């Protein structure tokens, strides 16, 4: 698997260069995720927290090995007129380009990191590089129902906030992702007169993932299955229970048939039998229909697919596609606006 060997080789070279102990710990955390160690194992070995592991893995994915160094500067200022001219020449020499690659190039070459994405878009526009993508909208969406459900969830979280902050009650936003090999294809920046071609033997080759993001911590748990159905839905709930022992679990998801099936209700009735509703081991809350933006896990799937599109030229096999997708998000701790749309936690 070429992408794995490339990353491991780069990390090994950095580790062998005898870096500062803090840099070493960062590199080791990233490398151990590559080796398949769980966050729990890495925390115990390196004496770090899950946030440390996720932070440096994300920094490495976005900015490369330099981001692990103590002297790495996130942002210096802006590009001079001469630097812009040089950048535009470089832009027009590229066959294709993602926004992440542009960010990385500017940070590495000029030591500049813009706070707003719009600054990069302005540079691309000045450099005569175009981008256009249509947006989806479900005409059956009922905004009143969405607003009502949002208030219900807010009230539930506020009512149980103490239990949530103590870790006695964990809220997971859950959904499925059906990953296709063709998902590595997306809009990239390129010369207007040239096509960008991606070699894929079977763009419909697929893998189904169930995923749940802990609303308070941002930690993501995913599990791969052949299809989305009642049996696998129950298995994923069992997986969440095994990963969150001694805690009650609330699952918030959409109204897919296998989320509300008779068999699932029977399973929930069995594990909650004899308990008052406030003491249920697992409680499920259904989101308003036709509005996936209510669910923060959708942003996790999006970030995973953006990583695939960033490294599309390395995804020679579907096995690599799956590995990269899983490595980018599994047990990762995320922080994005949707994780505060219902309530904020310290």
Taken as a percent bin, the fraction of beta residues is 5-15%
Strand order of the largest sheet: 3-2-1-4-5
Order of helices and strands: HHHHHHHHHEEEHEHEHH
| Integer average pLDDT | 87
Principal-axes geometry comes out as globular
Tell me the helix content.
40-55%
Biggest beta sheet attributes: 5 strands, mixed
Instruction: List the total number of helices.
Output: 13
* Total strand segments: 5
Using only C-alpha atoms, the radius of gyration works out to: 22 Å
Task: Label the structural class.
Answer: alpha/beta
Q: Which key features would you list for this structure?
A:
alpha/beta; globular; five-stranded mixed β-sheet; 45% helix
Short description:
The chain is an alpha/beta fold and 346 residues long. The protein has helices at residues 2-16, 21-34, 39-46, 50-63, 81-91, 99-110, 117-126, 143-159, 161-166, 230-243, 262-271, 297-310, 318-329; strands at residues 169-180, 206-214, 220-225, 248-253, 282-286.
Describe what this molecule looks like in 3D:
The chain is α/β, with parallel strands linked by helices. The protein has a five-stranded mixed beta sheet with strand order 3-2-1-4-5, with helices on both faces. Helix 11 links the parallel strand 4 and strand 5. The protein is globular. The two termini are 40 Å apart. The mean pLDDT is 87.
């Amino acid at each position: 698997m070429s992408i794995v060997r490339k990353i491991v080789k780069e990390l090994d070279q950095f580790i062998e260069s005898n870096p500062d102990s803090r840099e070493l710990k960062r590199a080791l955390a990233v490398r151990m995720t590559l080796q398949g160690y769980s966050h729990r194992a890495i925390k115990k070995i390196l004496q770090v927290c899950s946030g440390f592991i996720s932070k440096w893995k994300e920094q490495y994915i976005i900015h490369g090995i330099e981001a692990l160094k103590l002297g790495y500067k996130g942002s210096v200022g802006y590009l001079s007129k001469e630097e812009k001219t040089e950048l535009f020449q470089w832009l027009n020499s590229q066959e294709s380009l993602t926004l992440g690659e542009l960010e990385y190039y500017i940070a590495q070459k000029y030591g500049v990191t813009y706070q707003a994405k719009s600054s990069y878009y302005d540079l691309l526009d000045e450099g005569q590089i175009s981008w256009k993508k249509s947006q989806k909208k479900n005409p059956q969406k009922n905004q009143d129902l969405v607003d009502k459900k949002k208030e219900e969830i807010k009230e539930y979280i506020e009512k149980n906030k103490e239990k949530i902050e103590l870790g006695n009650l964990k809220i997971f936003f859950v959904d499925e992702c059906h990953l296709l090999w063709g998902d590595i294809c997306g809009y990239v920046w390129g010369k207007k007169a040239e096509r960008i071609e991606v070699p894929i033997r079977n763009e419909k080759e697929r893998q189904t993932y169930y995923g749940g993001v802990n609303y308070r911590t941002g930690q993501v748990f995913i599990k791969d299955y052949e299809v989305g159905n009642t049996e696998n839905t129950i298995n994923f709930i069992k997986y969440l229970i095994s990963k969150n022992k001694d805690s009650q679990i609330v699952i918030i998801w959409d109204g897919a048939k296998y989320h509300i099936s008779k068999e699932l209700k029977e399973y929930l009735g069995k594990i909650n039998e004899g308990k008052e509703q406030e003491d249920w081991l697992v409680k499920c809350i259904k989101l308003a229909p036709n509005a996936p933006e209510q669910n923060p896990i959708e942003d996790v799937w999006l970030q995973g697919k953006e990583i695939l599109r960033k490294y599309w030229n390395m995804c020679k096999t579907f096995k690599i596609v799956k590995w990269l997708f899983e490595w980018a998000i599994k047990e990762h701790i995320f922080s994005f606006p949707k994780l505060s749309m219902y309530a904020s936690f310290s």
